[in-house]
Design goal:
mainly alpha, Monooxygenase, elongated
């Protein structure tokens, strides 16, 4: 496998899972007072752009990793709104 593919996979996976600790903490504590919804909206917009870019390039690595990131961030917003006090 070419080195650029390996770097792309590692970078994509790390970026995609970066919000998992925040999401897990949100689910466990059921408290979203420290979640910045605006930041997540900007992040989701960027991730959606990366998915579109991946589709245009027909690059499954870009599509898959960013689609996962999109899902985690959308779920984070949904639960953050649910647990707002």
């Amino acid at each position: 496998m070419p080195i650029e593919k390996i770097v792309g996979i590692v970078a994509g996976v790390l970026t995609s899972v970066s919000m998992l600790p925040q999401f897990i903490k949100l689910i466990k504590k059921k408290d979203s007072k420290d979640i910045a919804i605006g930041t997540l909206v900007v992040l989701i917009t960027g991730v959606a752009g990366w998915v579109g870019y991946g589709v245009l390039r027909k690059d499954i690595i870009i599509i898959a990793t960013n689609a996962f990131a999109f899902l985690i961030n959308v779920l984070t917003i949904a639960f953050a709104l649910k647990y707002r006090k």
